Amino acid sequence: MNIRTLQADDVDRLLAFETTNRAWFEQHVEARAPNFYSAAGVAAHIADYLDSYQAGAMHPCVLTSDDGAAIIGRANLRQIDHASGSGEVGYRIGQAQARQGLGSQALQHLMALARTRYGLRILNAWISPQNLGSRRVVEKCGFTRDALAAPVVSQVNGVGHASHLYQCHL
Length: 170
What we know:
Helices cover 32% and strands 31% of the residues. With 170 residues, it is an alpha+beta fold. It has a single domain, classed as Gcn5-related N-acetyltransferase (GNAT) (Aminopeptidase), CATH 3.40.630.30. Strands 1, 2, 3, 4, 5, 6, 7 and 8 form an 8-stranded mixed sheet that branches. Strand 7 (152-156) and strand 8 form a beta hairpin. Helix 1 (11-20) packs across helix 3. The protein is globular and about 40 Å long. The two termini are 25 Å apart. Belongs to the acetyltransferase family. RimJ subfamily. InterPro entries: Acyl_CoA_acyltransferase, GNAT_dom, N-acetyltransferase. It comes from Duganella margarita.
């Protein structure tokens, strides 16, 4: 497995990854709009992420197979706020690669980027109580739940899921 920055020519690989894992992801996170699942939709998504990357507001990464031919996961450092020294992390690992430690490796990569490249001091992650795997990953990497932060509610398969804030001080 390799981790690298998302690239404009990742359209076909990213579309294959997102399409293959769509049902798996939609069990845990809010569904993407149907128009995302096309070459044009993914190309627009990548262009948006790369614009945000160029502006210093995010750092989008992909996890690839050893040969680089397939995307097997994603990891994003986003909402980079240089003034407050904070950012938000998120990741998604393909179903076939789940429970192999890739989420932890991706999060550790984002933590290193946040510290060394962006000089951030605090990272946030929003985790649903139903997503036990993600909760284990963030806790293993030193994040703790902020019990005072109000939850954020999103729709997962038509059901409201309250995600809780986890933070890590770098």
